[in-house]
Amino acid sequence: MNSTVTLNNGVEMPLLGLGVYAPQHNNEVQQAVEDALELGCRLIDTASAYGNEREVGDAILASGVARNELFITTKVWNDDQGYDKTLRAFDRSLDKLQLDVVDLYLIHWPVREHRAETWRALETIYETGRTRAIGVCNYYQPHLDELVKTATVTPAVNQFEFSPYCYLPDELDYCRAKGIQPEGYAPLVRGLKQNDPKLVRIAEKYGKSTYQVLVRWSMQHGVVTIPKSVKKERIRANFDVFDFEIDAADFAEMNTFFDDTRIAWNPMEFL
């Protein structure tokens, strides 16, 4: 399996990274990012709403890893949407991250009254070269249909909740048809399914944890995957997924696990 994907503008993006949404553990985020970088992780996914962009920036500086080896994502939050507000929010994010350029800048949620102007701001930022790619989060087909009517830049990435329990193949197929790279958050379903007997049986077959099987399933779909943890050993385990492959029968079975379990809002509430 390739360890990177190529976005629609030619930028290379790691297939596996670290999510840092950890509102109860932001004091641990810097160490977690340093640990992940030490373990070989090169994709870090943060957001202004997470309140830890500065910790991520400090970790990047402390790590000694060359900037051009890293892929850093952040996002504009709902309260900061709109053209001018988004431009200011991006400046604040760059300042906190202590970077001149981010690799990917995303709209966090498709806020109805602001999303068109917010996307226009992202296009402006992209044109200035201060982000290498732009994209969206939590956009389903209706949001993307609306966006592409006025966008002059096709989103490079669409990040949405993705696990066997929140598996929407039509959304995946739509993104691929439009040349938009899918990226999945909450692949581990916050631990809610770690003891699902169906999943446990498959994990035992491969000598892996249920979490590792969930990460691998996402990756085998070609979806960029960002499991989150602030514990070094858990981060290490989440990245120990390149030495096995879920076979076709088990993969197909996992595709039937959908039960609409979500840890975030349903994007269809943002129509």
Automatic annotation (TrEMBL):
Q: Which UniProt keywords apply?
A: NADP, Oxidoreductase
Give the transmembrane region(s): none
Which parts of the sequence belong to the NADP-dependent oxidoreductase domain?
A: 22-255
Binding of substrate, residues:
108
Q: Could you tell me which species this protein originates from?
A: Fibrella rubiginis
> Which GO terms of the molecular function aspect are on file?
oxidoreductase activity, acting on the CH-OH group of donors, NAD or NADP as acceptor
> What's the protein name?
Aldo/keto reductase
Mind giving the lineage of the organism this protein is from?
Bacteria, Pseudomonadati, Bacteroidota, Cytophagia, Cytophagales
The record's active-site residues are 50 (proton donor)
Give the UniProt family note: Belongs to the aldo/keto reductase family.
Q: Which SUPFAM superfamilies match?
A: NAD(P)-linked oxidoreductase
Write down the superkingdom of origin: Bacteria
